[in-house]
């Protein structure tokens, strides 16, 4: 009798669903195929999960393949991150694949047995321009700009604690400095077009508020965000559902309303006035000041390098974000087709400064899927001095690449403000995982550097890497990106200094 009642209830429920489907006019599929048509929407909803775990091969999925995610997860958990039985790549036919050329002999190298081996920057940030608070970053791997608001407070806490444990810096993102950023990790304060945390009521920049924010935490440098890879020239968008009272207070905006950042700055309007702004911030705070940008037209960079040639004004660092970089939300056309990929964009910018002999005076930072050893090694060979990791750091604290960042429904509680979902993050334990991932990536960079026969990844040159160019042919990285002799390499003084520092 009970089974009969259950069956009758189920049949009645299906009949109601079928009746609703037949009369509704929103979905043609359901109108034509009542009840069973819902299977299509279910499969569409769980499509990313099906592709991640069932359909795709180990190296096929984007933005991060199963092999890449597995390496990050294992590294973060201190598990075996080796792979057995050889590569499953088609090594002779994968167009554009990079191959590092090891050396048989080498000079003095760091002790690779130390799991926490230091790997500082080869350059002193702010040193060439004589900034009052110039310093040598302790780690060439740091956490990229991801704002509180885009990420949950628990996620930011975990990342900042992880940065402290690993001895790396943590970029605040343009959303301002929140209490969650004050868990021991040193900070790079990012200033975006909305000047969150240092703005007047009308959205314009306020220097006094900036100085107050800088004084409130361990801020080591200031980064002026011009654009980012996933949505260059667009500005940002934080959906109103994520703008809680707390976020509104930190940013200085109304709660519960969509927060759209302008596409361009109001504190300056061209390269000349931008350099005036850079020097103002550096003078008033003593901190190194740099810019972050995705790469499009090159006129901006030509003018910047020309003005910096004079020596009276200049940026201390340049962060180049590739078009393959991540974001919480962006229109598809911007994520897919606006701004150059990292290698192409960075090489063009580096070449502009190299032509003028300025590369030793600027710290170059790369971002955009550089939290994987192979990508990071190529970046260093092209002339990068440090790399920022964003989505890879998120993966280390539990992100499953559900790609729901723009919905406020992130199932792991990382890219959401939903209290029920964020409660899933245990910040202390996730911080340890973030730190282990960051340390492991540094150690991998040291290992590859040792294989090439040099003490530091910044000493890897563009001729140490070949790029596969069609079947059975390869060109050096220098040849692919038209680098001249010496480009991508440190000057002799810097090279000797960092080698001595690591092997003393």
UniProtKB/TrEMBL annotation:
Q: Name one GO biological process term.
A: glutamate biosynthetic process
Specify the Glutamate synthase domain's residue ranges: 138-454
Q: Which Pfam families match?
A: Glu_synthase
Supply the InterPro entries for this chain: Aldolase_TIM, GltB, Glu_synthdom
Top-level taxon of the source organism: Bacteria
Q: Which GO terms describe its molecular function?
A: glutamate synthase activity
Instruction: Supply the PANTHER family for this chain.
Output: ARCHAEAL-TYPE GLUTAMATE SYNTHASE [NADPH] (PTHR43819)
Q: Which family does it belong to?
A: Belongs to the glutamate synthase family.
Q: What is this protein called?
A: Ferredoxin-dependent glutamate synthase
